[in-house]
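Deliverable D4.2, example record:
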Amino acid sequence: MAKSRLPQLSCRTLLANSLATLLIISSWVAYAESPQPAHGIAMHGELKYGPDFQHFDYVNPNAPKGGMLRTAARGTFDSFHGHIPKGNAVSTRSIETLLTTSDDEAFSEYGLIAESLEVPEDRSWVIFNLRQEARWHDGEPITADDVVWSFETLTT
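Output generated by the structure prediction step:
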């Protein structure tokens, strides 16, 4: 019987080479799926406003401040919970969100409480990076735990 010309690999060498190959491949995949923080997200095309914009084009930063706003409402409300599935909720105009929409571009959102967000190309998950200066009405900082609690409360 003829001897094999292939090199003989020990199980240990084969296992070490396989693990090294897997580590290299997984690091490529991890690098490819590591999105960079962005100040907003556009569902179609590019964002209109850059990361350092101070206000939307349609906003007058020198507009008079203060006064009273009156809005019409039909009926009454059943709850202060602004996202109830049944009944009439009180207006949600007094809450801030992680992102805010721009009224002069469709399907784009910019950070509000979130300073930035990280989203992979396939948009299968998102990381919100909160602003250091984001606070509750009593001065307490808004934390990731607060965001998780709000999300779980609204989705259950």
